Amino acid sequence: MDSDSKLWATLFCMLMPFMCNAAFVSAEEGEHVLTLDHSNFTDIVSKHNFIVVEFYAPWCSHCINLAPEYEKAASILSGHDPPVILAKVDASDEANRELADKFEINGIPILKIVRNGGKNIQEYKGPRKADGIVAYLEEQNSPASAEIKSVEDAANLIGEDNIFIVGIFPELSGEEFDNFTALAEKLRSDYDFGHTLDAKLLPRGGGSSVDRPTVRLLKPFDELFVDFQDFHVDALEKFVEEASTPIVTLFNKDPSNHPFVMKFFNNPKAKVMLFLNFNSEHVDSFKSKFHDVALLYKGKGIGFLLGEIEASQGPFEYFGLKDDDVPLLFILNNDNQKYLKPNLEPDQIAPWLKQYMVKLLLMLPLILIHISDALFFKLQNADGNLKPFTKSEPIPETNNEPVKVVVTESLHDMVFNSGKNVLLEFYAPWCEHCKKLAPILEEVAVSFKNDSDVLIAKLDVTANDIPSDTFELPGYPTLYFKSASGNLLKYDGNRTTEDISGFIQKNRDKTVKPDTVNDEL
């Protein structure tokens, strides 16, 4: 995960000298946001039970827009008793790279709530305006679970359109209560929690009492509330994760659905997505049959999402899908393999998904040991030769620049089966580090232009799928070198023309015929 540390503000040293070491902390007068870096981050954070850290870059427009709101919020919160500390780290500074990796910073600006001296880290999920930041952090710095003593308390805390998790106990002590409060503390950024001695105060649940400690999850969809009575911490977390997820997540322009959409895409389990034009003739039939299939596979480790085409352009661009394919059934499995069924009919949803499930079965060798050959061949026929879908830009008709363009469809021929020594950059067009590296790679490519054994190339990761079992991309840019004989090495050296060229010379092989290359794919 990523974190950076820079220097403390003088004002905060004056207000709270016990939190600052004057030997290494300084800042501009009037600033309320502490500036941290790699040299002081751990020491400063360890002295606070609650501190908020923004990871930013000076050139980032979103960070620039957030800065005055963040500073205003810091000024307000500094007057609280005790003060709430807001800090920032320059994630683009190479010296802070280890911090950024530690905090898993893969975009900016990102705010992290750091508790208990750095022992607990949560992502900030609140507003980006000063008043909203203040209100959200006041809530986050209060007890994670609020006691419900009356119907009025319940009405004030539990809304009709949000998820609320309440613990019902005969007394507010004991192992079950402690485990519940620990759960609330851990998940407080994602859910609202309460606890009560009287289940009859709650708006849903039949108004009946409970005879033993119970967790009740109230929600605005599906069965509206679910009770659970296993208070092992792992079991509680699993219950909340499953019960708070709609059977079918709806992706449309309604903002109230967006948190569920975010949760759907952030969940690591396999995903089945049906994209429709909600104004089409057969939309009700599609919705009904898709919901029936989702119920059938409930609890099987698969999430289901129904997307309205106008609201789904982000996923369409990310996955390389086309509007002309709608109605479209799209599957993303745990290994990031993709399968799609374009222009499908409502009655094709269940059979096509069944083909996918059969294919999963055929990919499990431990299961195959226990089935007969006859059943194996029957399953092979049943999967319908379902082929994974791969996102790729078209192969360029001309590719005459010094740094050659590689796309997914040409990766095998240009890199793995080329018989050449290939340096391949994985980049993103928006990445500032990639932009800085571009002229350097150009110089490297020009220096090898008369060497037919060496190829310098680049691949746009935002427009092309890459084999994740071959390449590990912790960030952008990432460079890999494939020798002529097929050896694959990640380049972690300095990003200079001299160092990159020297690495190529040191690790290159003689060119071999493509048919004899050790194919990594």
From TrEMBL:
SUPFAM superfamilies: Thioredoxin-like (SSF52833). Its main location: endoplasmic reticulum. One of its GO terms (cellular component) is endoplasmic reticulum lumen. It comes from the Eukaryota. The keyword Isomerase applies. The keyword Nucleotide-binding does not apply. InterPro entries: Prot_disulphide_isomerase, Thioredoxin-like_sf, Thioredoxin_CS, Thioredoxin_domain. Disulfide bonds join 60-63, 431-434. Residues 1-22 form the signal peptide. It is found in: Endoplasmic reticulum lumen. Residues 13-142, 368-509 form the Thioredoxin domain. It catalyses: Catalyzes the rearrangement of -S-S- bonds in proteins. One of its GO terms (molecular function) is protein disulfide isomerase activity. Participates in the folding of proteins containing disulfide bonds, may be involved in glycosylation, prolyl hydroxylation and triglyceride transfer. PANTHER family: PROTEIN DISULFIDE ISOMERASE, PROTEIN DISULFIDE-ISOMERASE. Belongs to the protein disulfide isomerase family. This is Protein disulfide-isomerase. It comes from Fagus sylvatica (Beechnut).
